[in-house]
Amino acid sequence: PQPKVSRYLSQIRAAGLVTCRKERTWMHYRLQPNLPPWIIRLLDDLQHEQQGAAQLQGDLARIEAARACAE
Asked: Which helix (H) or strand (E) holds 38?
């Protein structure tokens, strides 16, 4: 998993979405402070979508469990 995360962070950094600094063996990332407002809105929407997806998965699991009990 670590090589994949490093690769993704490298691509995000190359796109100019984050800045980073190295402290010993650690890399610290943060969002670029001067991102356009539309990118900030997009990132906020993606975060809320992810939270909604997690809730949906939980709801679907409960429905499946209820169906299994009804059979």
From this structure: helix 37-70
Q: Could you give the percent of the chain with pLDDT greater than 70?
A: 97
Helix (H) / strand (E) containing 2: helix 2-14
Strands (E) located in 1-71: 18-23, 26-31
Rounded to two decimals, the pTM is: 0.56
Q: What are the residues whose beta carbons fall under 8 Å from the beta carbon of 32, sequence distance 6 or more?
A: 16, 17, 18, 19
Other Cβ atoms closer than 10 A to 2: 6
Q: Count how many Cα atoms sit within 13 Å of the Cα of residue 70 in the half-sphere of its side chain.
A: 6
